[in-house]
Amino acid sequence: MKKVLVVRNDKIGDFMLAWPAFAMLKQSMPGTEVTALVPSYTADLARLCPWIDQVIVDCGKHGSREQKSQLLSSLKLAGFDAAICIFSDAYNARLIWKAGIPVRLAPATKIWQFLYNQRIVQRRSRSEKPEFEYNIDLIRAFLNSLGKEPVLPEGPYLTFDPLSLEIQREKLATQLGLSMASNWLFVHAGSGGSANNLSLTQYRDLVAGIYAKADVEVVLTAGPGEEEKARELKALLAEQGISSTVYDKNSGLQDFTCSLACASYFIAGSTGPLHIAATVNVPTVGFFPNKRSATPLRWKTINTEGRHIAFAPPADADKEVASDMSRISVPSILPDVLTFMAKFI
């Protein structure tokens, strides 16, 4: 096995949760060239991953006929010995099969599984373990099929050298008007549409409670389309006498990731930036729905032990009620958040 393709071509958060799988594969087979097939919006993140050697950008199922033809040609010319589809759908199954890759491994789900010649049963819909563990299980099965001993990966999964962090921190301090001597509390109120999040008033109350007890400067992060929400939260905080700054301009995902590594704490719902922050091992506070497909267990971050705390609405058999984030009581969780944050001062 000289060249292995790993497919994880969906959302940012899902891709970040595949980093332990990439780490296991590369550390267990260091002489193997690992290539990631990813969409354009996660390609820069893939290029940051120390366990990915090459990146191929996927045009996706909505790509033009010419783009799809070029992608297929690239996969054929690369001469992969195996492909592991961490994320499998009809598009991926057909693509890998058409590419003629000899070993094709994926979860044994849906009707298109017949296009793979190695499959493992996972039952991800039961959400019995974290997503990153399901991803690792696929790599473990692949290694076992080769008689290779899996090397269990450990975080942090991405680190920046101290000089790079110091330069980035100085740049942010100048750009956002922050003190280099302060603890920086990053808050991301956007959701990317992937999961329910706290309301802006809940975030206001949470930040106000933290601000009253901890020495922090507040940075409100925002991705494309989330700028207005960040500014609304800034206005709500200002009404409480709390100064904050909106961080919505950067030089791309690699720059944004380095900025998150400068944070003292990161607070968000179950969204891509939360999982990026966890990858660089910033202490994270996450908010999740309580329906089975979206629980704190299923989408647990890849922070090292003790550097993540999660909250969800009380359990309920009604899916809509279980996803009602207004049922998270900020006054009730605030003591736990403050205790968690105090560990890292």
Automatic annotation (TrEMBL):
Any Gene Ontology CC annotation: cytosol
Superkingdom of origin organism: Bacteria
Gene Ontology molecular function, alphabetical: ADP-heptose-lipopolysaccharide heptosyltransferase activity
Please name the InterPro entries in this protein's record: Glyco_trans_9 (IPR002201), LPS_LOS_Heptosyltrfase (IPR051199)
Instruction: State the Pfam families in the record.
Output: Glyco_transf_9
Q: Does the keyword Acetylation apply?
A: no
Q: Which terms does the UniProt entry file under GO BP?
A: lipopolysaccharide core region biosynthetic process
CDD domains named among the record's database cross-references: GT9_LPS_heptosyltransferase
Record has Transferase as a keyword = yes
Q: Which SUPFAM superfamilies match?
A: UDP-Glycosyltransferase/glycogen phosphorylase (SSF53756)
What keywords tag this UniProt record? Glycosyltransferase, Transferase
Under PANTHER family, the record lists: GLYCOSYLTRANSFERASE HI_0523-RELATED, TETRAACYLDISACCHARIDE 4'-KINASE-RELATED
Can you say what this protein is called? ADP-heptose--LPS heptosyltransferase
Q: Which organism is it from?
A: Veronia pacifica
